[in-house]
Amino acid sequence: MALSAIDEALVRRYDVNAPRYTSYPTAAQFSAAVGPAEWSAWLARTRGDQPVSLYVHLPFCKRLCWYCGCNTRAVNRREVISSYLDLLLAEADLVVDAAGGPLRVETLHLGGGTPNMLTPNELDGLIAGLRQRFDMTSLTEFAAELDPEVLTPEWIAAAGELGLTRASLGVQDLSPDVQAAVNRPESFESIAAAAKALRQAGVTSLNLDVMYGLPLQGVDQVLATLTQVATLRPERIALFGYAHVPWMKPHQKLIKDAHLPGPRARFAQSRAAEAFLIEAGYEAIGLDHFALPHDGMAIAHHSGRLRRNFQGYTTDLAETLVGLGASSISRTPDGYAQNATLERDWRAAIQSRRLATARGVALSDEDALLADIIERLMCEFAVDLGAVYAKHGRPYPANASAPNLSEFESDGLVTRRGDLVTVTDRGRPFVRAVCAAFDPKLETSPGRHARVV
């Protein structure tokens, strides 16, 4: 797919380093100023009658995929996993104690890593332990991220019995050359079998993750993968651009820089993929998600209820997110709190009967306002600045203006009518750069964030 001269010029100009804006302030602003005392105080202010979301991080995989940006490691010793599960429930006890009683959980998400590294018995014990500690009588969604190559029928059956409603399968790319270049061999047959079994077990929303910008990957490989994936008709497809950040993830150094597509090639891959998915009946949701019209994400998008958090785009409206496990991030209206990233540090904290919070950021009134502006741009590609100010109980200054958007406007990426800022169709691939214009805390050093394109 050849790029027009205009698109090539836009890629050169706006392929900058910028956050993914899964939060504001971003994780780059987290510091040790937020620790166990702050997180405990924030939990104490949560209301027992308000729903919360629960995220459980399981940092174990059967194999280490070289592209991965998650906090995980390859492990084969069962005792390592079983002792981790015991500590997860001990951490849950600490959270409940700090909150002054059981929190009412409406959504549960198992992430990683590979949650299906747990045996069926371990999965059953984990969910039973969480149900003993939290009020999960009104649970509406139970989701898990899964690796189809190590997913067994027994695991699927156990998860179905426990009420799994949504599952995400990692596909990335089905080309053998690309798979070899990132150390992730898997077959379409295993993915198709997993999808069929999950549906039979009661999963009503299936997501498949696909990536572009991988080593040795071109438009042909991306479209060939999507052609096969689309035959399964997953309710959602997440199309992520590979973020090459070897300074943060040393195992990515195993990927040869010379094999990586450049910005123009990456842009061509993403545009071709989007056109294919729309033609296949999917709706474009935000920056990198696609959903069938009947799926809850498409419905939330049309009703203005789409949200964004550390898992990406979501339909979850809860103001409080409780994260358990190493590196997990929690959120309340007071701020963000992240557990120790190193598993050994997290284990040491929980074993000492103290919360494992290592860093975070407290939200000021200005932060909360800017977070709303950036989230609306990321989710809806438009924001009514006057309405956001009014929502936060602040008058919109008569002489207020958006940050300097003139370059975006002159290039046709943004329009401005009164208080309404809209990202155009041409500007959507560069929405992170537009959001960055609203971010007074942005640090743009090359080693801080991945590239926009």
From TrEMBL:
Q: Which reaction does it catalyse?
A: coproporphyrinogen III + 2 S-adenosyl-L-methionine = protoporphyrinogen IX + 2 5'-deoxyadenosine + 2 L-methionine + 2 CO2
Domain Radical SAM core intervals: 46-288
Does this entry carry the keyword Iron-sulfur? yes
Q: Tell me the GO molecular function terms.
A: coproporphyrinogen dehydrogenase activity
Q: Which SUPFAM superfamilies match?
A: Radical SAM enzymes
Matches recorded under CDD domains: Radical_SAM
The subcellular localization recorded is: Cytoplasm
Q: Which domain of life is it from?
A: Bacteria
The record's free-text note on cofactor binding: Binds 1 [4Fe-4S] cluster. The cluster is coordinated with 3 cysteines and an exchangeable S-adenosyl-L-methionine.
Q: Which family is this protein grouped under?
A: Belongs to the anaerobic coproporphyrinogen-III oxidase family.
* Protein name as annotated: Coproporphyrinogen-III oxidase
Q: Which species does this protein come from?
A: Peiella sedimenti
Underlying gene: hemN
